[in-house]
């Protein structure tokens, strides 16, 4: 991995590089390994990790397994929807994040509705396939527009929001590469599935779709990790805002102290300048005595 290409504004870092400790397994002087670990944790959080993958695969796997055995669309669809609801309920009871479970429930529900309306079991997979195709196009379009979709997804996770767009060009470039990778991988997946939707039967399409659930996803996540591990670290805009608030509070406290000091001085002068004090003042020499 190459080191961060952060711009240097202080030559003291260059002067101290000759005496800096050598990099080791725990990380080098630039915190490169810490950045990798941060990226791994952020990707794990953003994409749901192992549990999120299970929640994505299990309903479809149950549908195709039951349909392969009994060829009953209604039983297969109801079983898939039931297991997705159970997975969401488990997350709700444990008070875990619900975004992955809800996305699974809605995806399965749309598939069930499509299949029930048309009576074609293959239509259970059609909404997910159309979503994948649309997501692939979104990755390409947003990247060409200068706002890579993967940056919009991961920016809040890294606490950088959209700072990478204008303040961190190296990171924006990494997000663009990752978005292109996601777009290409999803498009390749669609190029395999849509011909099968037209020509293969339901069980063949279902098993191929299940087989293509995890490997392309893991490849896209890995490439994202590679690109971001080589990129400059994220700018923590939340920490910047907190620091700004602390500075404003400190400045406000200083102004209040100065105001209190001025008030004390004014009060002291007011106590000295009283009618009795004026009367007790010695008279100056009179003119024209």
From TrEMBL:
> Low complexity composition bias: which ranges?
1-19
Q: Does the keyword Membrane apply?
A: yes
Q: Which UniProt keywords apply?
A: Membrane, Transmembrane, Transmembrane helix
Asked if the record carries the keyword Lyase, the reply is no
Disordered as annotated region, ranges: 1-33
Q: Tell me where the transmembrane regions lie.
A: 42-67, 73-93, 100-117, 137-158, 179-199, 205-228
Protein's name in the database: DUF3159 domain-containing protein
């Amino acid at each position: 991995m190459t080191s961060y290409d952060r711009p240097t504004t202080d030559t003291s870092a260059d002067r101290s590089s000759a005496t800096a400790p050598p990099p080791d397994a725990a990380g080098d002087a630039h915190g490169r390994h810490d950045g990798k670990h941060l990226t791994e944790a952020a990707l794990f959080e953003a994409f749901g990790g192992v549990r999120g993958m299970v929640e994505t695969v299990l309903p479809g796997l149950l549908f195709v397994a039951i349909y392969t055995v009994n060829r009953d669309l209604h039983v297969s669809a109801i079983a898939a929807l039931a297991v997705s609801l159970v997975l969401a309920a488990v997350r709700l009871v444990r008070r875990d994040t619900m975004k992955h479970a809800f996305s699974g429930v809605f995806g399965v529900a749309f598939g069930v509705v499509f299949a029930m309306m048309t009576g074609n079991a293959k239509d259970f997979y059609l909404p997910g396939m159309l979503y994948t195709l649309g997501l692939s196009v979104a990755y390409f379009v947003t990247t060409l527009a200068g706002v890579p979709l993967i940056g919009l997804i991961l920016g809040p996770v890294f606490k950088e929001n959209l700072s990478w767009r204008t303040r961190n060009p190296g990171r924006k470039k990494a997000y663009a590469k990752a978005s292109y990778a996601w777009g290409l991988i999803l498009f390749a997946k669609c190029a395999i599935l849509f011909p099968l939707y037209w020509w293969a039967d339901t069980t063949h399409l279902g098993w191929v779709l299940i087989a293509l659930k995890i490997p392309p996803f893991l490849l896209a996540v890995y490439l994202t990790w590679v690109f971001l591990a080589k990129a400059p670290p994220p700018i923590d805009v939340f920490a910047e805002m907190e620091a700004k608030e602390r500075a404003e509070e400190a400045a406000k406290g200083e102004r209040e102290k100065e105001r209190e000091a001025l008030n004390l001085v004014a009060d002291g002068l007011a106590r000295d300048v009283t009618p009795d004090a004026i009367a007790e003042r010695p008279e100056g020499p009179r003119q024209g005595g």
